[in-house]
Amino acid sequence: MPRRDKKYHYLYKTTDLRNSNFYIGIHSTDDLNDGYLGSGTRLRRAVRRAGEDSFRKDILEFLPSREALLVREAEVLTEDLVADPRCMNLMSGG
To answer: Cα–Cα distance between 31 and 49 in angstroms, integer?
Structure first.
C-alpha cells in the first residue's frame, strides 16, 4: 500500500535520552505503535550503538495527507534547526 493511502500522517521528534540529541521526521502508517523511530543516518547509528530503549519518539503534529506532511516537514526543518549541534538531521527541508 502506498504511503499516501495510510491512515495516519505525522511529524515526530525522536530524542536520545542520554544526551538530548534529536531527529525530526515524518511517518505515514496504519499503526501508531509500529515501533518506528526514524530513518536518518545519524539516528540509525545512534540507535544501533545505544539501543531503542535510549530513545523516545513524540508525535508533534498530525496532518491530513502525505502531501501536507511533506510541506510541513519542509517548513519545520530549517537551516537554523539543522545547524543546532544536537540535531541529527543532515539537511534542511526533509
So the answer is: 26
Alpha-carbon 83 to chain mean position = 16
What string of DSSP letters covers the chain?
A: --GGGSSEEEEEEEEETTT--EEEEEEEES-TTS------HHHHHHHHHH-GGGEEEEEEEEESSHHHHHHHHHHHS-HHHHHSTTB---STT-
pLDDT in tens, 16-73: 999 999 999 999 999 999 999 999 999 999 999 999 999 999 999 999 999 999 999 9
